Amino acid sequence: MHAMRKTLALSVALVSTAIAAAPSVYPTGVTLYDPAKAHNTYVIFSAPDQQTRLIDMNGNLVRSWDKAGFPATPIDPRLIGGKRGHIFVQLEAVAEPSKLASAGNGLRNRTIGELDWNGEAVWQWGAQAPGGAAHQHHDQRRLANGNTLVLANKLHPVPGFAVPEVIDDAIYEVDPEGNVVWSWTASEHLEEFGFTPEQLELVRASKNPDVLHINNLASVGPNTWFDGGDQRFHPENLVIDSREGNFIAIIDKATGKVAWRLGPDLPPLDWRAPAKVPRPADQFIGQHDAHIIPAGLPGAGNLLVFDNQGEAGYPRAPLGLLSGSRVLEIDPIKGEIVWQYTAADSAQPGWAFYSAFISSARRLPNGNTLIDEGKFGRVFQVTPTGEIVWEYVSPYFGKAPGGNARSNWIYRALPVPYDWVPEGTPRSERAVVPPAPESFHVVQEDTRHD
Fold first, then answer.
1. Environment class of residue 420 by beta-carbon count within 10 Å: exposed (0-12), middle (13-18) or buried (19+)?
2. Banded model confidence at residue 236, pLDDT cuts 50, 70, 90
């Protein structure tokens, strides 16, 4: 029996490796574009070459900044007096980072800031942060009151944990002068996240100090649930999700308590069953970018999340042999999946869409969804029925996380409306019709002699 379990584990590992494979040669830039079916927009992302770029629908470089964000985040002009083209990025690294610092946490980051369209820093924060460094990771957001929300790491001992120091997750609300006016620390709420006593033992015994790895932070925003009297969805409450813990939660801003939660334990995902909706939410694993779809967009009030199906959980949730990633739209009141995207919706095998880490998904005004398959630097837009109507593969390479390999990975790609940029900024919307894959070849020179 023991030998059988070892064989099964090896098989899963081999299949997981296989479905994560990518070709060594492939086209980059915009590979497909139907202007009539796509929502036409700019897209912003940071690349592994530590540059942030804004592109149009034909992949043309509209603007670049010589700093990268984790992620680069466009700031709504309505929150900064109508100023266009401002972004959040990371400005400066710490001189001597902790040995626990990695590409997946904020321990290398000293200073974050707001850059204008010309790349000038108009606001920054780091020296005033707890410990003298921002340690920002995964998210930062400007609020309507002018303050800034920062998701950060806090390296410190936590009683009851096996590791000497935990890479804890903290949230700071920072005023324009750099003062922390509200804060929250994840380890202080560990028993509110839905873990059983047995799971809590595994969490505390983990040899990985980044035990929860919270990877997004967003305000709930105006929504119909709160308008109907549900205080859990107060617009100022905060949505987070834990990549390692397999849960999504809403934090009550007034009390710091968890007001709503989905996960960590959900019904097993059966990839062999027909993907009917609505249905009860099933097990997401290692998810990213959970947020409430903003008012005014199709699906407003529902939760949208990129379900990586990447190894995570206490204990690790089982992965399907031939599965891939998913994008899920979930009714947060009923706990039901009301829409989803998998590769099967584009008439592809499940493993054709798979990013075990990073990645994002955002709803667009016409009902389409912009998806970042981050592991492979692929950003694409799908209709509600799963038709791919725009696709882009980043041509910008840099160092991959771990080792010396090069990659075009994209942590998060975000849609940016045309009126976000200064008036007169050029853009292009020319259709791109791809060749059939079976006839798309690299032309070789014929060196044969007659």
1. buried
2. very high
Cα 370 to Cα 392: distance, rounded to the nearest angstrom: 11
> What value does the CA radius of gyration of the chain take, rounded to a whole number of Å?
22
Terminus-to-terminus CA distance in the chain, angstroms?
A: 64
Listing DSSP states for 400-412 in one string gives PSSSS-EE---S-
The mean pLDDT of the chain is 94
> 15 versus 377: which is more confidently predicted?
377
Q: What is the dihedral of CA 74, 325, 247, 137, to 10 degrees?
A: -30
How far lies 347's CA from each of 341, 386, 445, in Å? 11, 9, 34
Contacts (Cβ under 8 Å, ≥6 apart) of 398: 47, 48, 49, 50, 406, 407, 408
Residue closest to 324 by CA, chosen among 371, 289, 279, 277: 371
d(CA 278, CA 437): 34
Distance CA 250, CA 259 (A): 6
Residue 79 in contact with residue 101, Cβ under 8 Å?
no
The residue assigned the tokens 């100090």 is 209
Segment 291-300, tens digit of pLDDT: 999 999 999 9
Is residue 390 predicted with pLDDT exceeding 60?
yes
Q: Identify how many contiguous H helices and E strands the chain contains and give both numbers.
A: 3, 28
How far apart CA 37 and CA 31 sit, in angstroms, is 15
Pairing label, strands 73-74, 29-33: unpaired
Instruction: Give the model's confidence band at 447: pLDDT under 50 very low, under 70 low, under 90 confident, else very high.
Output: low
Q: Which residue type is seen at 117?
A: W
Print burial letters for 76-106: b (CB count within 10 Å at least 16), e (below 16).
ebebbeeebbbbbbbbbebeebbeebeebbb
Using DSSP's 3-state secondary structure scheme, residue 104 falls into: coil
d(CA 390, CA 186): 38
Burial-class residue 255 by CB neighbours within 10 Å (0-12, 13-18, 19+). Answer: exposed
CB burial class (10 A; 0-12, 13-18, 19+) of residue 236? middle
pLDDT digits (tens, 9 = 90+) for 328-359: 999 999 999 999 999 999 999 999 999 999 99
